[in-house]
Amino acid sequence: MGRIVGIDYGLKRTGLAATDPMQIIASAIETVPTENLIDYLKKYLEQEPVDAFVLGHPKNLDNTATDSTSAVMDFKVKLEQTFNLPVHLEDERYTSKMAMDAMIRGGMKKKDRRQKGNLDKLSAVIILQSYMESKGF
Fold first, then answer.
1. How do beta strands 50-57 and 87-91 pair?
2. Taking every annotated instance into account, which residue ranges of this chain make up the domain YqgF/RNase H-like (predicted)?
3. CATH superfamily membership of 3-134
4. Which residues of the chain, if any, have pLDDT below 50?
5. Which of 58, 59, 91, 114 is 20–30 Å from 69 (CA)?
6. Which residues does 54 contact at the CB level (< 8 Å), separation at least 6?
7. What is the pLDDT of residue 112?
8. Can you give the pTM of this predicted structure?
């Protein structure tokens, strides 16, 4: 069984998370500059078997598209074409707030919380965990 990779796609940087090989636990991997994302994923897939991607799907509270939605959908197509693996969309509303709350509850220092990369990685974990819970993993 391969891992599932969660992606919190951003125009500048992207947070990544992955399941363990048994697809039980989601853990943060890295925050990568978006321009290097495909190359990073190619190297990751050379080292780890991956069954699917879960991509955060940005939506407004009223379920309409955000300014980022078209970029995410373009990236989804690129992922599917590059890796020939399923790409599942997962609602990412509130993930940044949930990630910030988790960092505060976890006792992360304010200096570390200010690093946007930490927020992106944790958001990717939340997106992936949400997908896993909705699918009964």
1. parallel
2. 2-99
3. YqgF/RNase H-like domain (3.30.420.140)
4. none
5. 114
6. 4, 5, 6, 7, 87, 88, 89, 90, 127, 128, 131
7. 57
8. 0.85
